[in-house]
Amino acid sequence: MMKKTHDSAIKSERRPRPALWQIICIVLFLFYMLLPIISTYVFSIAKRWDRTILPEGYTLDFYKRAFQVSYFGSTLRNSFILSLSTALVILIIIVPTVYWVHTRLTRAKPLLDVLMILPFGIPMVVLALSLVQIYNFPPIARSPFLLIGAMVVYAMPFMYRPVVNAMQAIDANTLTEAGQSLGANVFQVLMQIIIPNILPGILSGGLLVFSTVFAEYTLTSLIVGARFKTFPLLLVEYTRINGNVAATFSVISFTIAWLASILILWVGSKGQHTTADTIRVR
Q1: How do residues 225-279 score in pLDDT, each as one tens digit?
Q2: Residues 210-229, buried b or exposed e (16+ Cβ, 10 A)?
């Protein structure tokens, strides 16, 4: 009797195998998502690909031409500065605000949710032109500082929702009371208790903000233009000059985004392990 019960428990714990139609749907989805990326990679090394199904030859000359562009390094640096600065500013604004609203001002949650939806309803052209008209005095007028401010407004919802979801998954009030009972102030509770517990949400939001800002073209073009040229501006410029070089720039952008994602996830996993080890020691 015990053996039968044990066998039935083992069978119940086994996960059911996916059906054939589920496997087909997953394969089709992966094919649909990966085909444009793979095609871009192949086109960036193709000598000619307009008369046959497969490229007529392969070369790395377009990568050499891309790296030899005089302002390649400066545009890449500007994109990194813009993306990291925007993510940092949004992080400083969103995390304390969400924590304070979640623990102290719970009635303000619906208002904050509405405010975080508004950027999705504002066209980027309208946002850029309105900011240029209002902040038309130096040193802010058409400067990278104004561009960072516009990017903060545009990308803030991408950080807000993951942080809110992570905050709702923990008992922030109990953790705050426990920290304060041990003599910690609000800043110490936020930095040493709350942030380590919502780190996955912060990392997810940071990845979304970084990738969104790094690929943004409209706001940069309308606010600063060639004064602070970023990588998307360079890519769009070469779509009119040479499609293969533009595909090379797209590949470089994809690769940078993937490497940044892997790096952030690796740092986050290391931080979580360190926090867990510290809690065990204590």
Answers
A1: 888 889 988 888 888 888 888 888 888 888 887 887 787 777 666 655 555 554 4
A2: bbbbbbbeebbbbbbeeebb
Share of the chain above pLDDT 70, in %: 89
Q: CA–CA separation, 154 vs 116, rounded Å?
A: 10
CA 118 from chain centre, in angstroms, equals 19
Mean pLDDT in residue range 190-206: 88
Task: Output the pTM of the full model.
Answer: 0.80
Q: Report whether 260 contacts 210 (CB < 8 A).
A: yes
* pLDDT tens figures, 116-151: 888 888 888 888 888 888 888 888 888 899 999 999
The structural domains of the chain, with segments of one domain joined by +, span 72-240
Secondary structure (DSSP) of 93-117: HHHHHHHHHHHT-GGGHHHHHHHHH
User: How far, CA to CA in Å, does 205 sit from each of 86, 105, 163, 238?
Assistant: 12, 23, 7, 31
Name the token pair of 62: 């377009």
Cis status of the peptide bond prior to 119, with omega within 30 of 0: no
The CATH superfamily assigned to 72-240 is MetI-like (1.10.3720.10)
Q: Are 70 and 139 in contact (CB under 8 A)?
A: no
CA distance 241 to 23: 42
Amino acid making up residue 188: Q
Sequence-distant (≥ 6) Cβ neighbours of residue 173 within 8 angstroms: 103
CB 245, CB 65: distance < 8 Å? yes
